[in-house]
Specification:
With 195 residues, the protein is an all-alpha fold. It contains 6 helices and 2 strands; from the N terminus they run H-H-H-E-E-H-H-H. Among the domains are: 6-62, no CATH class; 79-146, no CATH class. Keywords: Coiled coil.
Length: 195
Amino acid sequence: MDTNSVDVRAACVDMLKGGQCQMRHGLKKKYFDGVPANLVRTTSPVTCMTDDQWRALVEMWSNPKHKKQEKYKDTEPTAIDLFKEMHCSKKSGFCEPIKNAIVLPKSSTFLQNVGLPISKPSSRSVVSSQVWELQAQLEAKEQESAQLKQESAQLKQEVASQAHEIDSLKKGHQETHALLRQLILHFNQGQVTPP
């Protein structure tokens, strides 16, 4: 393995970042979440982190911008909820490959087929999955509508081009017809001698 390769270095950096993110998540879960603000540690609970770094993390976690809204307070998220959370951007929705891959069956047996137990869905998860399905259907309809509009614009452009071509042919036909009339008229008057 070439340790100086850009790809190898990028993969290593990515792995280290992922490990650091997991470590911070574990620390937050163990020492911050559910702990009253006045009881949160002011010194680092681990030796690999300085007290200043720990305080910076606690400050970041305490900031309202970084606090996550608890979506699933009473119930576990469904596979559909997790999929949407991981693959749906708040700004642009699903990316094109995901939109193309989404096929929404009336009742999914995927989890059963791969051997995972299925918990009885709560009314919240059923509603959430129904909302997700409706959003996916709406996005599919919007995509289909945009495609139809594009095809319609192309057809209008083709029709306009063909109409222009027809007008051009008509004009050429009229000019040819007028020329033939002149020739016939001159021939009948004896001005032009036949060959």
